[in-house]
Design goal:
Length: 229
């Protein structure tokens, strides 16, 4: 599904590359944790998969096609196949929970009928049925992140990309959110999560891709956060 071939990513002003010759493949339906210290290259890898950035050298392939060759229409189609979840939630404070989730469908031109059907279903899936009329500031941090996940899954994406989704949550909420990602993955959605949450990584025993200083140092099925564990 996703193939990354000898990808390097350079940023101006940085002494070392964000990614330095990373190669890996991710199959459809996998659940992958990207782990490593701050600055290891986790967020850069997610941005390359989402086509928010292009590699300085090397290639990212999606179903056999080099994403660097995507024209504007192909790029939009590619991004619509993916749902993004962020550490800081990125909810629209002036909009209700329903409106925040609906926005993801509005921007891709879905009809009001489809929106009325799909938004409540997504909210029920993340455990927020009955919160449709609430505003983000009326919710806990864990609930706000669930809205972010509902917004990501309402499009029925092939892939969920999450960049430190539990970074602003306590341990209990972090575990609940990761269990939610696991249930989404069980439905066939590929899930790729960059995280520092070592406890949930160790508990869940999914595939672990470890980065350090832009290099891939470990790739394990049913891995742990730290290979010393």
């Amino acid at each position: 599904m996703i193939e990354i071939r000898d990808v390097k990513k350079l940023y101006s002003g940085m002494a070392t590359p964000a990614l330095a010759g990373v190669s890996l493949e991710i199959e459809r339906g996998e659940f992958v944790f990207l782990v490593g210290p701050s600055g290891a290259g986790k967020s850069t890898l997610i941005k390359l998969i989402f086509c928010e950035q292009k590699p300085s050298s090397g290639s990212v392939y999606f179903w056999g096609k080099n994403t660097s060759s995507f024209k504007e229409a192909e790029l939009l189609k590619h991004r619509r196949r993916m749902g993004m979840v962020f550490q800081d939630f990125r909810l629209l404070k002036q909009k209700t929970v329903f409106e925040n989730v609906a926005f993801a469908l509005e921007v891709v031109g879905k009809s009001p009928k489809v929106i009325r059907e799909k938004v409540p279903a997504a909210l029920e899936k993340v455990g927020l049925a009955g919160k449709e009329k609430s505003f983000p500031m009326e919710l806990s941090g864990g609930e706000q992140q669930r809205v972010g996940i509902a917004r990501a899954i309402v499009k029925d994406p092939l892939i969920i990309l999450a960049d430190e989704p539990t970074g602003n949550l306590d341990r209990d909420n972090s575990r609940q959110l990761m269990d939610l990602f696991a249930r989404i993955n069980e439905g066939g959605t590929t899930v790729i999560i960059a995280t520092h949450a070592y406890d949930v990584v160790d508990r869940m025993k999914k595939r672990v891709v470890a980065l350090e200083a832009g290099q891939l140092i470990r790739d394990e099925q049913r891995g742990s956060y730290d290979d010393e564990y």
